[in-house]
Amino acid sequence: MVVSAQLNQEPKKITKKFFSELNNLENITPALKKKKGFTNYQELMTYIEEKVQKYPELVSSNFIGESQKGKKIPILYIIKNSDDDIKKLRVWMQGGLHGNEPASTESLLYLIHLILENPAYKYLLDKIDLAILPMANIDGFLKNDRYAANGLDLNRDHTKIMAPETKASKRAFAKFDPHVALDFHEYRPFRKDFAQLSTFGISNPYDVMFLHTGNLNVPENIRQIIDTLFVANAKKSLDKLNLRHRHYIKSEKYKGEIHFSTGSNTARSSSNFYALNNGIATLFEIRGVGIGKTSFKRRINSGLAVGFSFLKTAYENSNFIFEQIDIANSQSNDIVLQHERSIYEDIIKAIDIESNELIDFTTTMHSSKDSYAISKIDRPLVYIIKKK
Ligand SMILES: [Zn+2]
């Protein structure tokens, strides 16, 4: 039996029917300029240096530290100095934390181009200071490998902070102190488990999936704003381009069966960790791991739609966001020690590989997005951390 869902190449009939290319982008970023391969280190550095040289009054760049293989990790700041006393929101965007998710980096490089070159976006800088870390895991990216050079998953390292890349990005993040943070990723549309579903397997049909926090220790108002304002607006932007989206799902084995889970609340991963600092944080996943450059412009369009939607939402609601973050910072809710995910029957869309049709797939969903507390304590006044 041919198990298509385990293949690393997307069957052409699926691309043709469900992921037609969007050809509205110019070939102006490194990976778009060439037929094969993705942005390499030299191209990344040249691209950034060109922007700094062309717009010295707006753009500055810096190195936040070094990768394990000794590559300096660049960050770019786009900040418009103005004489007026407008309080500006700080927005942090990062990509390439997993090295095999190339459209995350390329979307950010294209976003940099548009915000600088396209007059339609310039106004955003009147109320927003922007920090962009386009290739957070350089060693992994250059090998098209998810992990850092020592095998660590950098998006599971936010609490232990073991990798030098994590230390460097934490320092830069804390220094910039963003109000809004957006982490660009890609996901694998052909998972191993998917081969066992339906007759000859299924593939995930969503152009974008949103993974924002369900962590109950993130203040309720912050969780609401992320979900009903920022992510809701981003979904509308994707609708305009006819791009499919939903809340993040992945398959998982549960007592020998394949179930699905949705949402996330572990502080080890970026969007939860950032939201626990009372920031408006979201991670999103573009459909792209393991399919090379298939539908690459469509994937970059997905990244741009979400990225610009977040910037516009921040711009249009800046006063509200300042107020709400103040409310979150002054709140003294109980601390949730343990939680459980809610479990329910759910219907997800899937591409049936045999028939090449979009089908409704009924599954058991384990939701971190709708988790509930099973034990709580009063918020401590202080924490004492003993020296070992
Ligand atoms: Zn990722």
Q: Could you tell me the CATH topology label.
A: Aminopeptidase
The whole-number mean of residue pLDDT values reads 94
User: For this entry, what is the oligomeric state of its chains?
Assistant: single chain
> What's the CATH first level?
Alpha Beta
Shape: globular
Largest sheet, spatial ordering of strands: 1-2-4-3-5-11-7-8
Note the total helix count: 10
Strand and helix order: HHHEEEHEHHEEEHEEEHEHHEE
Proportion in β-strands? 25-35%
Low-confidence stretches: none
> What can be said about the biggest beta sheet?
8 strands, mixed
- The beta-strand count equals 13
Q: Strand pairing plus helix content: what structural class? A: alpha/beta
Helix content: 25-40%
Our Rg estimate from Cα atoms comes to 21 Å
**CATH architecture type:** 3-Layer(aba) Sandwich
Write a structural description:
Helices cover 31% and strands 27% of the residues. The chain is of the alpha/beta class and 388 residues long. The protein has an 8-stranded mixed sheet with strand order 1-2-4-3-5-11-7-8, with helices on both faces. The radius of gyration is 21 Å and the shape is globular. The structure holds zinc ion.
